């Protein structure tokens, strides 16, 4: 067993706490806990890690680690890298916080917002000519939801397309 100095022990405690909390947050964002924990582990790591390293750090199975690493690569939050002389796949995380935001916003839009908008559009179209109080109230509510979700999606797209500094300046003006 390794003996750690006080600074290393504090770093491990803080990092473990961060990884656990990031995993809990991930479940609230619709991402599975292990996927979020792997992201947190690699995002805060100073070096690339292989599947075995992820398994050991997080105490997860090979299959769980492997499938979540592949999903994070598909999202664009991790990159697979080659280390000369080693046959294993290594992974490193995107470290730029603004780029992480942009990637997550893009993926959430593709996976959640676009299907919701498609459903709202379909419901609005299918009920637009129906008569009666219930049908008209339903159609009105669905159209309002569609308009709001579309507006929020457009705002998110605009913000995500901005350069980081400009977005911060704009947010400061809006909030100030």
Helical residues, percent:
over 70%
Give the strand line-up of the largest sheet. Answer: 1-3-2
The value of Rg in angstroms is: 22 Å
Number of domains: 2
Total strand count, please? 3
> Which whole number gives the mean pLDDT?
90
What is the architecture of the largest domain at the second tier of CATH?
Answer: Orthogonal Bundle
Secondary-structure-derived class: mainly alpha
Q: Mind summarizing the main beta sheet?
A: 3 strands, antiparallel
Question: What's the CATH topology name of the largest domain?
Answer: Arc Repressor Mutant, subunit A
CATH superfamily of the largest domain: Winged helix-like DNA-binding domain superfamily/Winged helix DNA-binding domain
Strand content: 5-15%
What coarse outline follows from CA principal-axis ratios? elongated
Distance between the termini: 52 Å
Q: Any idea of the CATH class of the largest domain?
A: Mainly Alpha
Q: Low-confidence spans: pLDDT under 50, at least 5 residues?
A: none
What is the H-and-E element order? HHEHHEEHHH
Tally of separate helices: 7
TL;DR?
The protein is mainly alpha-helical and about 180 residues long.
Describe this structure in words.
- By secondary structure, this protein is mainly α.
- Helices cover 73% and strands 6% of the residues.
- The protein has helices at 6-28, 33-43, 51-58, 62-75, 97-127, 133-161, 164-175; strands spanning 49-50, 78-81, 90-93.
- A three-stranded antiparallel beta sheet has the order 1-3-2.
- A hairpin with an 8-residue loop joins β2 (78-81) and β3 (90-93).
- α1 (6-28) crosses α2 and α3 packs across α4 (62-75).
- The longest helix has 31 residues, at 97-127.
- The termini are far apart.
- The model has no long low-confidence stretch (mean pLDDT 90).
């Amino acid at each position: 067993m390794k003996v750690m100095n006080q600074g290393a022990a504090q770093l491990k405690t803080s990092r473990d706490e961060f990884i656990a909390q990031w995993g809990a947050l991930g479940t609230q964002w619709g991402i599975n806990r292990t996927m979020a924990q792997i992201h947190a582990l690699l995002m805060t790591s100073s070096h690339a890690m292989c599947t075995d390293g992820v398994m050991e750090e997080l105490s997860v199975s090979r299959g769980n680690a492997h499938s979540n690493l592949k999903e994070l690569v598909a999202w664009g939050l991790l990159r697979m890298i080659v280390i000369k002389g080693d046959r294993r796949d290594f992974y490193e995380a995107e470290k730029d916080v603004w780029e992480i935001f942009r990637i997550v916003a893009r993926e959430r839009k593709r996976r959640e917002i676009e299907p919701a908008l498609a459903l709202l559009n379909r419901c609005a179209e299918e009920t637009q000519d129906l008569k009666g109080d219930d049908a008209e109230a339903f159609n009105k509510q669905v159209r309002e939801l569609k308009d709001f979700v579309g507006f929020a999606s457009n705002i998110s797209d605009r913000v995500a397309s901005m350069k980081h500094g400009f977005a911060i300046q704009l947010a400061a003006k809006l909030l100030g």
